[in-house]
Specification:
Blueprint (H helix, E strand, L loop, with lengths): L1 H19 L3 H12 L6 H20 L7 H7 L1 H8 L4 H5 L3 H14 L3 H11 L11 H20 L7 H29 L37 H17 L3 H12 L8 H18 L13 H14 L1
Helix pairs in contact: 1-2, 2-3, 3-5, 3-7, 5-7, 7-8, 7-9, 8-9, 9-10, 9-11, 10-11, 11-12, 12-13, 13-14
Protein backbone atom coordinates (compact mmCIF):
# COMPACT_ATOMS: atom_id res chain seq x y z
CA UNK A 1 0.00 0.00 0.00
CA UNK A 2 2.83 2.40 0.89
CA UNK A 3 4.41 1.74 -2.51
CA UNK A 4 1.18 2.75 -4.25
CA UNK A 5 1.02 5.93 -2.17
CA UNK A 6 4.61 6.85 -3.04
CA UNK A 7 4.02 6.21 -6.74
CA UNK A 8 0.86 8.31 -6.56
CA UNK A 9 2.75 11.16 -4.91
CA UNK A 10 5.49 10.97 -7.52
CA UNK A 11 2.96 11.12 -10.34
CA UNK A 12 1.23 14.11 -8.75
CA UNK A 13 4.56 15.90 -8.33
CA UNK A 14 5.53 15.17 -11.94
CA UNK A 15 2.17 16.46 -13.19
CA UNK A 16 2.49 19.70 -11.24
CA UNK A 17 6.07 20.21 -12.40
CA UNK A 18 5.07 19.66 -16.02
CA UNK A 19 2.21 22.17 -15.65
CA UNK A 20 4.57 24.74 -14.13
CA UNK A 21 6.99 24.22 -17.03
CA UNK A 22 4.18 24.37 -19.63
CA UNK A 23 5.22 20.93 -20.87
CA UNK A 24 1.74 20.16 -22.15
CA UNK A 25 2.68 17.06 -24.11
CA UNK A 26 3.99 15.51 -20.90
CA UNK A 27 0.90 16.67 -18.96
CA UNK A 28 -1.39 14.89 -21.43
CA UNK A 29 0.72 11.71 -21.30
CA UNK A 30 0.63 11.68 -17.49
CA UNK A 31 -3.11 12.38 -17.49
CA UNK A 32 -3.73 9.40 -19.76
CA UNK A 33 -1.73 7.26 -17.33
CA UNK A 34 -3.79 8.65 -14.46
CA UNK A 35 -7.00 7.83 -16.31
CA UNK A 36 -5.97 4.21 -16.81
CA UNK A 37 -6.01 3.60 -13.06
CA UNK A 38 -9.82 3.51 -13.04
CA UNK A 39 -10.08 5.01 -9.56
CA UNK A 40 -13.02 7.19 -8.45
CA UNK A 41 -12.37 10.85 -9.13
CA UNK A 42 -9.19 10.32 -11.14
CA UNK A 43 -11.04 10.30 -14.46
CA UNK A 44 -12.41 13.82 -13.83
CA UNK A 45 -8.96 15.07 -12.84
CA UNK A 46 -7.43 13.42 -15.92
CA UNK A 47 -10.07 14.99 -18.17
CA UNK A 48 -9.22 18.41 -16.75
CA UNK A 49 -5.49 17.93 -17.34
CA UNK A 50 -6.06 16.70 -20.90
CA UNK A 51 -8.37 19.63 -21.64
CA UNK A 52 -5.88 22.08 -20.15
CA UNK A 53 -3.00 20.55 -22.08
CA UNK A 54 -4.85 20.58 -25.40
CA UNK A 55 -6.00 24.18 -24.89
CA UNK A 56 -2.59 25.54 -23.93
CA UNK A 57 -0.63 23.63 -26.57
CA UNK A 58 -3.06 24.81 -29.27
CA UNK A 59 -2.81 28.46 -28.18
CA UNK A 60 0.98 28.30 -28.12
CA UNK A 61 0.83 27.50 -31.84
CA UNK A 62 -2.21 29.69 -32.61
CA UNK A 63 -2.29 32.78 -30.35
CA UNK A 64 -5.76 34.03 -29.34
CA UNK A 65 -6.05 36.93 -31.77
CA UNK A 66 -8.97 38.09 -33.91
CA UNK A 67 -7.26 36.70 -37.00
CA UNK A 68 -7.32 33.19 -35.47
CA UNK A 69 -10.93 33.15 -34.23
CA UNK A 70 -12.34 31.16 -37.14
CA UNK A 71 -9.60 28.55 -36.86
CA UNK A 72 -10.03 28.30 -33.06
CA UNK A 73 -13.72 27.40 -33.38
CA UNK A 74 -12.76 24.05 -34.84
CA UNK A 75 -9.24 23.66 -33.42
CA UNK A 76 -10.37 23.94 -29.80
CA UNK A 77 -13.42 21.68 -30.02
CA UNK A 78 -11.69 18.73 -28.35
CA UNK A 79 -10.22 20.81 -25.54
CA UNK A 80 -13.67 22.29 -24.93
CA UNK A 81 -15.20 18.81 -24.72
CA UNK A 82 -12.77 17.73 -22.00
CA UNK A 83 -13.10 20.93 -19.96
CA UNK A 84 -16.90 20.80 -20.07
CA UNK A 85 -16.67 17.42 -18.33
CA UNK A 86 -15.05 19.17 -15.37
CA UNK A 87 -17.59 21.77 -14.27
CA UNK A 88 -20.22 19.57 -12.58
CA UNK A 89 -20.66 18.54 -8.93
CA UNK A 90 -18.04 15.73 -8.96
CA UNK A 91 -15.48 18.21 -10.26
CA UNK A 92 -16.33 20.69 -7.49
CA UNK A 93 -15.45 18.05 -4.89
CA UNK A 94 -12.07 17.55 -6.58
CA UNK A 95 -11.55 21.35 -6.74
CA UNK A 96 -10.96 21.38 -10.50
CA UNK A 97 -14.27 23.02 -11.41
CA UNK A 98 -12.96 26.54 -10.73
CA UNK A 99 -9.88 26.19 -12.93
CA UNK A 100 -11.99 24.49 -15.62
CA UNK A 101 -14.35 27.49 -15.73
CA UNK A 102 -11.43 29.92 -15.94
CA UNK A 103 -9.82 27.94 -18.75
CA UNK A 104 -13.15 27.73 -20.58
CA UNK A 105 -13.31 31.53 -20.46
CA UNK A 106 -9.89 31.62 -22.13
CA UNK A 107 -11.05 29.10 -24.72
CA UNK A 108 -14.21 31.05 -25.51
CA UNK A 109 -12.25 34.29 -25.72
CA UNK A 110 -10.00 32.64 -28.31
CA UNK A 111 -13.13 31.57 -30.22
CA UNK A 112 -14.50 35.13 -30.19
CA UNK A 113 -17.37 34.39 -27.79
CA UNK A 114 -16.76 37.37 -25.50
CA UNK A 115 -20.09 37.25 -23.69
CA UNK A 116 -19.67 33.52 -23.13
CA UNK A 117 -16.20 34.11 -21.68
CA UNK A 118 -17.55 36.72 -19.26
CA UNK A 119 -20.30 34.30 -18.26
CA UNK A 120 -17.70 31.65 -17.35
CA UNK A 121 -15.77 34.18 -15.25
CA UNK A 122 -18.94 35.17 -13.44
CA UNK A 123 -19.80 31.51 -12.77
CA UNK A 124 -16.28 30.98 -11.41
CA UNK A 125 -16.69 33.91 -9.02
CA UNK A 126 -13.50 35.57 -10.26
CA UNK A 127 -14.03 38.69 -8.17
CA UNK A 128 -14.31 36.55 -5.01
CA UNK A 129 -10.89 34.91 -5.45
CA UNK A 130 -9.08 37.57 -3.42
CA UNK A 131 -9.04 35.45 -0.26
CA UNK A 132 -7.97 32.18 -1.88
CA UNK A 133 -4.40 30.90 -1.81
CA UNK A 134 -2.95 30.52 -5.30
CA UNK A 135 -0.28 28.03 -6.40
CA UNK A 136 2.14 29.33 -9.01
CA UNK A 137 0.33 27.80 -12.00
CA UNK A 138 -2.95 29.29 -10.74
CA UNK A 139 -1.35 32.74 -10.60
CA UNK A 140 -1.10 32.64 -14.37
CA UNK A 141 -4.61 31.26 -14.84
CA UNK A 142 -6.12 33.99 -12.65
CA UNK A 143 -3.94 36.69 -14.23
CA UNK A 144 -5.17 35.66 -17.67
CA UNK A 145 -8.74 35.56 -16.38
CA UNK A 146 -8.60 39.19 -15.24
CA UNK A 147 -6.97 40.14 -18.54
CA UNK A 148 -9.70 38.32 -20.47
CA UNK A 149 -12.40 40.04 -18.41
CA UNK A 150 -10.93 43.42 -19.37
CA UNK A 151 -10.42 42.51 -23.03
CA UNK A 152 -13.95 41.08 -23.41
CA UNK A 153 -15.46 44.14 -21.72
CA UNK A 154 -13.68 46.36 -24.24
CA UNK A 155 -15.21 44.45 -27.14
CA UNK A 156 -18.81 44.38 -25.87
CA UNK A 157 -20.64 47.69 -26.46
CA UNK A 158 -22.65 49.34 -23.70
CA UNK A 159 -26.46 49.11 -23.98
CA UNK A 160 -26.75 52.80 -23.09
CA UNK A 161 -23.65 54.69 -24.09
CA UNK A 162 -23.86 57.44 -21.47
CA UNK A 163 -20.86 59.38 -20.20
CA UNK A 164 -21.29 57.90 -16.71
CA UNK A 165 -21.45 54.32 -18.03
CA UNK A 166 -18.36 54.85 -20.19
CA UNK A 167 -16.41 56.17 -17.21
CA UNK A 168 -17.56 53.31 -14.99
CA UNK A 169 -16.72 50.72 -17.63
CA UNK A 170 -13.29 52.27 -18.18
CA UNK A 171 -12.57 52.19 -14.45
CA UNK A 172 -13.53 48.51 -14.20
CA UNK A 173 -11.41 47.58 -17.23
CA UNK A 174 -8.39 49.38 -15.81
CA UNK A 175 -8.84 47.56 -12.51
CA UNK A 176 -8.89 44.23 -14.36
CA UNK A 177 -5.75 45.04 -16.35
CA UNK A 178 -3.89 46.30 -13.28
CA UNK A 179 -4.72 43.14 -11.32
CA UNK A 180 -3.73 41.02 -14.31
CA UNK A 181 -0.46 42.93 -14.62
CA UNK A 182 0.45 42.64 -10.93
CA UNK A 183 -0.31 38.91 -10.93
CA UNK A 184 1.69 38.44 -14.12
CA UNK A 185 4.77 40.10 -12.65
CA UNK A 186 4.45 37.96 -9.52
CA UNK A 187 3.99 34.83 -11.63
CA UNK A 188 7.10 35.59 -13.67
CA UNK A 189 9.14 36.09 -10.50
CA UNK A 190 7.92 32.72 -9.24
CA UNK A 191 8.81 31.09 -12.56
CA UNK A 192 12.43 31.97 -11.81
CA UNK A 193 12.19 29.80 -8.70
CA UNK A 194 11.04 26.56 -10.35
CA UNK A 195 13.91 24.64 -8.80
CA UNK A 196 12.52 25.37 -5.36
CA UNK A 197 9.16 24.39 -3.85
CA UNK A 198 6.33 26.34 -5.54
CA UNK A 199 4.95 28.95 -3.15
CA UNK A 200 1.37 30.06 -2.78
CA UNK A 201 -0.06 33.54 -2.72
CA UNK A 202 -3.39 35.23 -2.32
CA UNK A 203 -4.45 38.30 -4.25
CA UNK A 204 -4.60 40.24 -0.99
CA UNK A 205 -0.94 39.44 -0.32
CA UNK A 206 0.27 40.87 -3.63
CA UNK A 207 3.18 43.24 -3.07
CA UNK A 208 2.65 46.71 -4.48
CA UNK A 209 4.79 47.10 -7.55
CA UNK A 210 6.27 50.38 -6.34
CA UNK A 211 8.01 49.00 -3.26
CA UNK A 212 10.78 47.01 -4.92
CA UNK A 213 12.86 47.26 -8.02
CA UNK A 214 15.91 46.28 -10.00
CA UNK A 215 18.93 48.56 -9.84
CA UNK A 216 20.54 47.01 -12.90
CA UNK A 217 19.93 48.76 -16.24
CA UNK A 218 21.03 45.64 -18.12
CA UNK A 219 19.17 42.33 -18.15
CA UNK A 220 21.07 39.40 -16.59
CA UNK A 221 23.17 37.43 -19.07
CA UNK A 222 22.47 33.87 -20.11
CA UNK A 223 18.73 33.94 -19.41
CA UNK A 224 16.18 33.49 -22.17
CA UNK A 225 12.85 35.23 -22.12
CA UNK A 226 9.93 32.99 -21.32
CA UNK A 227 6.84 33.48 -23.44
CA UNK A 228 3.99 34.93 -21.43
CA UNK A 229 1.57 35.02 -24.34
CA UNK A 230 -0.36 37.73 -26.12
CA UNK A 231 -3.10 37.93 -23.45
CA UNK A 232 -0.76 38.85 -20.59
CA UNK A 233 1.48 41.05 -22.74
CA UNK A 234 -1.58 43.03 -23.82
CA UNK A 235 -2.89 43.31 -20.26
CA UNK A 236 0.40 44.69 -18.95
CA UNK A 237 0.36 47.50 -21.50
CA UNK A 238 -3.37 48.20 -21.58
CA UNK A 239 -4.02 50.04 -18.29
CA UNK A 240 -1.74 53.03 -19.05
CA UNK A 241 -3.29 53.33 -22.52
CA UNK A 242 -6.79 53.47 -21.05
CA UNK A 243 -5.67 56.08 -18.54
CA UNK A 244 -4.33 58.22 -21.39
CA UNK A 245 -7.53 57.82 -23.41
CA UNK A 246 -9.44 59.05 -20.36
CA UNK A 247 -7.17 62.11 -20.12
CA UNK A 248 -5.46 60.85 -16.95
CA UNK A 249 -1.84 61.21 -18.04
CA UNK A 250 -0.49 61.34 -14.49
CA UNK A 251 -2.04 57.96 -13.67
CA UNK A 252 -0.68 56.45 -16.89
CA UNK A 253 2.83 57.62 -15.99
CA UNK A 254 2.45 56.31 -12.44
CA UNK A 255 1.38 52.90 -13.74
CA UNK A 256 4.34 52.66 -16.10
CA UNK A 257 6.72 53.60 -13.27
CA UNK A 258 5.24 51.08 -10.85
CA UNK A 259 5.64 48.23 -13.36
CA UNK A 260 9.21 49.21 -14.17
CA UNK A 261 10.05 49.29 -10.46
CA UNK A 262 8.83 45.71 -9.94
CA UNK A 263 11.41 43.05 -9.20
CA UNK A 264 13.10 42.07 -12.45
CA UNK A 265 12.85 38.49 -13.69
CA UNK A 266 14.41 36.74 -16.67
CA UNK A 267 11.04 36.70 -18.44
CA UNK A 268 10.48 40.46 -18.28
CA UNK A 269 13.62 41.66 -20.08
CA UNK A 270 12.02 42.41 -23.45
CA UNK A 271 8.81 43.60 -21.82
CA UNK A 272 10.66 46.12 -19.63
CA UNK A 273 12.27 47.61 -22.72
CA UNK A 274 8.84 47.98 -24.33
CA UNK A 275 7.33 49.60 -21.23
CA UNK A 276 10.34 51.90 -20.81
CA UNK A 277 10.08 53.02 -24.44
CA UNK A 278 6.37 53.72 -24.06
CA UNK A 279 6.91 55.72 -20.85
CA UNK A 280 9.72 57.73 -22.43
CA UNK A 281 7.48 58.55 -25.40
CA UNK A 282 4.69 59.70 -23.07
CA UNK A 283 7.06 61.89 -21.07
CA UNK A 284 8.73 63.39 -24.14
CA UNK A 285 5.60 63.99 -26.22
CA UNK A 286 2.75 64.35 -23.79
CA UNK A 287 4.16 65.92 -20.64
CA UNK A 288 5.26 69.55 -20.53
CA UNK A 289 8.07 70.79 -18.31
CA UNK A 290 5.60 72.51 -15.99
CA UNK A 291 3.26 69.52 -15.75
CA UNK A 292 6.03 66.98 -15.12
CA UNK A 293 6.13 65.42 -11.66
CA UNK A 294 9.24 63.63 -10.47
CA UNK A 295 8.75 60.11 -9.11
CA UNK A 296 8.52 59.72 -5.37
CA UNK A 297 10.57 57.20 -3.45
CA UNK A 298 13.53 55.68 -5.24
CA UNK A 299 14.74 58.26 -7.72
CA UNK A 300 16.89 55.81 -9.61
CA UNK A 301 13.76 54.20 -11.03
CA UNK A 302 13.22 57.03 -13.53
CA UNK A 303 16.88 56.94 -14.50
CA UNK A 304 16.49 53.20 -15.00
CA UNK A 305 13.59 53.86 -17.37
CA UNK A 306 15.55 56.35 -19.49
CA UNK A 307 18.56 54.05 -19.56
CA UNK A 308 16.39 51.27 -20.94
CA UNK A 309 14.96 53.69 -23.49
CA UNK A 310 18.44 54.49 -24.81
CA UNK A 311 19.36 50.80 -24.84
CA UNK A 312 16.27 50.09 -26.90
CA UNK A 313 17.18 52.87 -29.34
CA UNK A 314 20.75 51.77 -29.84
Amino acid sequence: MSGKVIRGQRLETEIERSREESNWKKVIELAEHLKSRNQPGLETLANFLIGEGKLESYLEENPPTEANISKAKTGLAEARKYLLMCIGEPAKKLEVSLDALLLLSKLEYAMGDYEGALGRLSAAGLDQLTEKSLPTRSLRIVAESYAIKGLCSERIPLPNNSKYQRAEKNEKMIRCFELAGDLTLLYLQEQDKLTSTPSTHSLQSLPTTTTTGSTSPLPPNGLENKKIGVILETALQRAPILYMKAGQLDKAISRYRSMLCAVESSATQHLRLTLARQLAEVLLRGCSEHAYKAPTGKRWCLWHCYKLWHLAEY
